[in-house]
Amino acid sequence: MSTHSSSGVAATADGPDEYPDWLTLDNSAKIWPALLSPRHSTMFRLTACLVEPIRLARLQSALSDIMGRFPYFDVELRRGLFWYYIESHRATETAVEADSVNPCMNAALIGKGHLPLRVRAFNTRISVEFSHMITDGTGALTFLRALVTRYCELSGTSCSPLEGLPRMGEVVDPREWEDSYPAAIVASTSGLPRIPPPETAFRMPSALLPTGTYRVISGLLPASEVVALAKQQGVSLTEYVAAVLLYCLQDIQERRLTTHGRWGHLKPIRLTVPVNLRPMFDSRTMRNFFLFVDPGIDPRLGRYTFEEIADQVHHHMRFNLQKKRMRLMITRNVRGEQSILNRLMPAFVKDAVLQVVFHFLGDRRYSLGLSNLGRVQLPPELNGAFSHWVFTPPPSPVSKVNCAVLSWQDTLCVTFGSMARGTELEQEFFRFFSSKGLSVYVESNAEWCERETVGS
Hints:
CATH class of the largest domain: Alpha Beta
Helix content: 25-40%
Strand content: 15-25%
Number of strands: 19
Largest sheet: 9 strands, mixed
CATH architecture of the largest domain: 2-Layer Sandwich
Order of helices and strands: EEEHEHEEEEEHEHHEHEEHHHHEEEEHEE
Structural class: alpha+beta
Radius of gyration: 22 Å
Number of helices: 11
């Protein structure tokens, strides 16, 4: 027999907690409902590209099989008097949808019958789109890995167990649905140092695409060769990609200001790079658990060589990726949420306040976002089942362009999601790697570069 606590958590008398009927949004997710708009969808996408066409009935069976293993994703987003919350969705079975030319768009997310998760299929591609209101890239990747593994099992492939890969029929660990932010805060906030907000940063000078349009350009590169370039520079792969982005943005800003004769208006160039906090704080949550670091350069001090940028990114990342510094930022965020004034403020007032806060302290402070989910891990029996994997970042009408990285075996996929009419940054970025002798294969939902090979 189950009993319900005031937090909505159901517990059994002789076993682990059952999944709750409802949960408040985690600390990172609370800002997203206030930002929802046709352009700011809060959705991001992960895609597994198979070597054979998808069998839709088999994919639907696989989805039905694993949804019970991820109860915290089978939910609806609801608006309460003081906070938004997530509620279990058990009315209908989650169905596979046909894909769209414009991913991550046109999603009704809040209210009964609206799911913050979409599973989509086209030709050889299986895609999942998640709202950041329920999970981050790590949680979404875990779900897609489980889905495609089950799909391949139903196709006749016997897959060996893999640590960290959820399987159908397993008992769900209650730690998977916890909000891990409060557990990571500093016990006392007395005398904690301030974290000053950064200045407004340079962003791509381009008009927006029509509402509902989201251009995705992916470049496939040999992962081992990119890693070799990073090692030559003494940095990690993420740091190297960040340095290339900053270098390209520096060139774009210089050309822009030279053309318009406005050299006095140089702005800092700054990236926002999410960091997975699970290993640092021993968390198993499948909800959001990340913070940002913000490597950048200030061209007002003079032009940076690529080597200088790479060195600056490397040391900035190393300095900020310390547990104590992460704990300080988490504490600031959680303590603000827990204040009496914030707790008693009605949800519609919170929405207005968060919109103002985000306007001044959100995407305007950064040139674009860069997210690297690392290498996809699957049972070895599936090594030949996929050509590559794609990570599409969430759209932003403010920064206009975001970048995401994911690798499968020796294929590194770098994807730009853009709401900007121009493609200057994407072209500069892939030309940089082509100039280093790497072959870059580009695919997109934009006609100008559909399945084009860049370089030798």
